[in-house]
Design brief:
Elements (H helix, E strand, L loop, with lengths): L8 H29 L7 E7 L9 E7 L2 E6 L4 E5 L8
Antiparallel strand pairs: 1-2, 2-3, 3-4
Length: about 90
């Protein structure tokens, strides 16, 4: 690990705002996906944004959350939400 470098005050404040905005948007995407799939989004789940496609020319699929109800994903190319078993590869 390299030595940490402190951001200038203005940049630190901007990073805080960006972090909060990104987290809010990811939570919103997870809630929409969970609602679409009929999942109980009131349960505890981990918000993620993890690409599942190894092929850059293939489907743009991301895992949006994982929890007691399983894993939920969104395919940007097809505009579909789906359940995903993290132990199995996504079919392209």
């Amino acid at each position: 690990m390299t030595e940490p470098v402190l951001l200038h005050t203005e940049d630190r404040h901007r990073m805080i705002r960006l972090y909060e905005e990104v987290l809010t948007r990811l939570e919103e995407m997870a809630m929409i996906t969970g609602r679409t799939l009929g999942l109980d989004t009131d349960c505890v789940f981990e918000v993620r944004f993890r690409p599942l496609s190894a092929n850059p020319d293939g489907p743009n699929v991301v895992e949006l959350f994982r929890g007691g109800v399983g894993s939920a994903c969104y395919d940007y190319n097809r505009g579909v939400c789906f359940h995903h078993d993290p132990l199995r590869p996504v079919h392209e």
